[in-house]
Amino acid sequence: MSTLADNAGIFVAVSLSAMSCPPHATAAETQFGDYEIRLCHVDLQDRSSNPNLPGGWSLIDRNDNIPVLCLYGSLATVSLATLYPKLASLRSVDIVVKTTGGPVDVWLPLGETLVGKLRQLVIDEACFSSCANYLVPLATQVIAGRNTLIVWHGGPITGSSDILKGTDVATAIHYDDLARRTQRLYELARVDSAILAVSAAMPSKSKFKAIFGDAAKSLSGYAFSPTRLTQCFRFKNLKHMWHAGDDEAVAKLGMERSSSLALLENPSAERDGSIDCLNR
Questions:
Q1: What local confidence, expressed as pLDDT, does residue 18 receive?
Q2: Strands (E) located in 35-188
């Protein structure tokens, strides 16, 4: 499949919340969502260390409580065919993620299946790319604790012409289908899909140079603040989302995760922490 249909990611995020948990969860685990993360680590031991490695999924039944779906690592080569019938039978599900995302062709159908069902999205260190695009808007509540990174860097958008230059007809038709379905998903979530265009924008060259110097050649993505996501893109589910802060703080956290991970909070030239809604 053409890379136009890919929404490649990179790496890193942790978790915090007040969630209903199984009887054996401790008070601290209930507060921070650690119990759900621990369940996923036990069930996906070989997949839980690095969100950029080949991943997998596991659906954990919590008896009479809401099931937990674990999505770990890259889903680029993971089949979800047997997962869809299980999700169809559920009224509600909590999801724990630690992933750099993967192709739109994998994540968009998953998002479409989860409309109206995703109660709590718990971030275990990383929700990048397609994970951010197709899960964060759908959750009733996003739980993202200290040192988490939720990173956006574009996605399929309707009315795009530049991205389709030089592609064949079949690729263009497929991209248009992905863009229209993505737009519909955002309409159902009541979130402004302009975030996909804004997060694909190039950052201010002067700001990028001032923050990264020669340490980075290109941007990896934007870790938008919950304030910006709420005020500019109509998110209403981010009460429990921790955030690093301004461009410098986001860049520092990204580089601590990987020397090749160059992140900013927003693409504008402003560095004073003001909220400039570039989609207006």
A1: 28
A2: 56-60, 68-72, 93-99, 102-103, 118-128, 141-144, 149-151
